[in-house]
Amino acid sequence: MSNKTIFSLLVIVAGFISAPTVSAQQSTLDKMKSSGAVTMGVRESSGALSYTLGDGKYAGFHVEICNAVLRDIQKQLNLKTLDVKYSPVTSQNRIPLLQNGTVDIECGSTTNNATRQKDVAFAVTTYVEEIRIAVKANSGISSLNQLNGKKVATTTGTTSVQLLRKHERATGVNFEEIFGKDHADSFLLLESGRADAFVMDGSILAGNIANAKNPGDYRIVGEVIAVEPIAIMMRKDDPSFKKAVDDNIKKMMKDGTLTKLWDKWFLQPIPPKNAKVGLALSESTKQAWSSPNDRPAEDYQKK
Amino acid sequence: MTLDWSVFCKDTLTGEAAPRCFSFLFGMDPNADPTYLDWLFTAWGWTLSVAGLSLVLALLMGVMIGTLRTLPPTNVLNKVFAFLGTVWVELFRNIPLLVQVFLWYHVVPAFFPVMKLFPSYLLVSIALGLFTSARIAEQVRAGIQSLPSGQRNAAIALGMTTTQSYRYVILPMGLRIIIPPLTSECMNLVKNSSVAFAVSVPELTLFAMQAQEETSRGIEIYLAVTGLYVISAFSVNRIMAWIEKKSRVPGFIAPSTSGSH
User: Fold this and answer.
1) Is residue A165 located within the same domain as residue A118?
2) Across the strands, what pairs with A200?
3) Are residues A215 and A270 in the same domain?
4) B contact residues 192-211, partner A, Cβ 8 Å cutoff
5) How confident is the model at residue B261, as a pLDDT?
6) In chain B, whose CA is at the least distance from the CA of A96?
7) What is the residue extent of each domain of chain B?
8) Do B137 and B65 meet the contact criterion of CB atoms below 8 Å apart?
9) Are A153 and A234 within one domain?
């Protein structure tokens, strides 16, 4: 390779490395006005919060809240049409896709914590999650301390992984961690017997159990390992959109819409199998609704 | 966009800076809790283990199956072996790698429950090894069939049995011919070991995904992981180049270009 070829290759590579710095993004409300469309990030198997019905359709507690909020914003902006597109995201790519504009609002099961607040903004907390354990009913396990020497499944790219590590270190209980690549995969590990327990947010456990072949084979047991606020995510530094979303959610909190939605998604049979999740409204969630806030998970641990 | 490399010195449990960044080497005091750098190197070890185990399996099975496919159809046994070789290659070439990994991890243990006790890295190595063995078998077949027919005929004329003709005449030259595509295949194997993350082997890709989630410093983490993959694959490349140079038979193969110099 001649010197000239090497030099030109180096220039091209340098160009790629130095090229795009993040340009200032227009506010989401302006984007909605100019394009008449908005993209909602949704999850494929996040319990009853956000899941797929197959065939490109998505449903869930947070999906319905986001749909209602976007309809309200459409009215407030006086837009004739607002095309809501659904884009499935994973624990891995939800923040990068939000930051680069592929997704405008993420309505899944994202924990609000201080590290993430450096990169994105969260709406007021709509759901307070308790991390619990799901086991097979006939395994006789009823607490995290009984998991010594057993296999515990959790999903890659979630906050539960780090929580388990800290717990293991703190209590000296020695268990083997298995990572599923997503929540459905982790539940499959429990179902097929490769894992003895599945540690994840209670709603995801309940949702997966409700959709399992034999829901009666499983139990959610044990003490609450951690409490985490779950909220809808938006881009950082976009105060007009955050205010619009927050105001609409607070309105739904005050006029009882959220209580009705909770009943619809967590206490009544839900598609696709008409199974009941059966998760009662917890005190912490009720409190988050009565005093709306977007405090991160670290604040909840200080209590 | 500034890069913050101190993320690697952070404790994986608390997220604060640890006293020593790297506590892996012998003679150094291990940290109480591992740092991300410790975890990175543990993950690299797993990647190399899975790749190494798969490589052994792939080379053994690949050379054997490739040889079987080139057997002359003189008797029934040869024809059966050749047919088995074809079945093997077509089976493992027509199914995507990730699907094969899931088959070995979820489906096959459902038929043979004893396999549920196998550790996941063993099942992934089997899947990756057999997938690559089909490709190596085809390369071996190509190398053998590229030899002039006079070689095989001369061996038979000298009174060698089929086994002897392969052992002393055909395979030595055939295998030397295919060292370049075999190098690619070995490098591919190192890179394909990243599918092991899907069945919970704690290797580099899983480390990258989990550490990126915990520290939110995706760029530094992925740059480091990419660097380690490049080093691993390039080392395989250089080892194969050394093997090629050492095993070259002067005058038998057209003069090879002297690489990059």
Assistant:
1) no
2) A132
3) no
4) 197-198, 200, 202, 206, 209-210
5) 40
6) B218
7) 33-247
8) yes
9) no
B109, B198, B214 member nearest A162 (Cβ): B214
Residue B76 to residue B84: CA distance in whole angstroms? 12
Among the three residues A227, A255, A290, which one is the final residue of a domain in this structure? Answer: A227
pLDDT at B34: 77
Chain A residues in contact with B209 by the CB 8 A cut-off are 92, 156-157
Residue B99 CA, distance from chain mean position: 17
The CA distance from A179 to A185, in Å, is 9
User: Would A174 be classed as within a structural domain?
Assistant: yes
End-to-end Cα distance, chain A = 65
pLDDT in tens, B219-241: 889 999 999 999 999 999 999 99
Total domains in chain A come to 2
CA dist A136 and B99 (Å) reads 27
User: Which tens digits make up the pLDDT trace of B128-137?
Assistant: 999 999 999 9
Please check whether residue A165 touches B, CB under 8 A.
Answer: yes
ipTM of predicted assembly, 2 dp: 0.71
Residue A221 shares a structural domain with residue A151? yes
Q: Report the amino acid identity of residue B203.
A: E
Q: Write down which residue in A210, A227, A244 finishes a domain.
A: A227
Q: Is the dihedral of CA B62, B68, B69, B71 positive or negative?
A: positive
Do A50 and A122 fall within a single domain? yes
Per-residue model confidence as pLDDT tens digits over A90-142: 887 888 899 999 999 999 989 898 888 988 999 999 999 888 889 998 888 88
Q: CA of B207 to nearest chain A CA: how many angstroms apart?
A: 9
Sign of the CA dihedral with A58 first, then A63, A64, and A67 last: negative
The answer to whether position A22 is within a domain reads no
* Residue position matching structure tokens 């199974």: A275
Q: With respect to residue A4, please indicate whether it lies within any of the assigned structural domains.
A: no
CATH number, domain at A166? 3.40.190.10
CA distance B198 to chain A (A): 6
pTM of the full structure: 0.77
Same domain, A121 and A251: yes
Residues A240 and A111 occupy one common structural domain: yes
The Cα–Cα gap between A50 and A47 comes to 6
Among A243, A192, A236, A229, residue whose Cα is nearest residue A213:
A192
Rounded to 10 degrees, the C-alpha dihedral B128/B131/B133/B139 comes to: -130
Joined tokens for residue A202 = 């209670």
Residues ≥6 apart with Cβ < 8 Å to A133:
A141, A144, A147, A197, A198, A199, A205, A220, A221, A222, A225
pLDDT band at A169 (very low <50, low <70, confident <90, very high): confident
A35-76 per-position pLDDT tens digit: 999 999 999 888 788 999 988 899 999 999 999 999 999 999
What is the span of the domain harbouring residue A46?
28-128+229-298
What CATH class does B33-247 carry?
mainly alpha
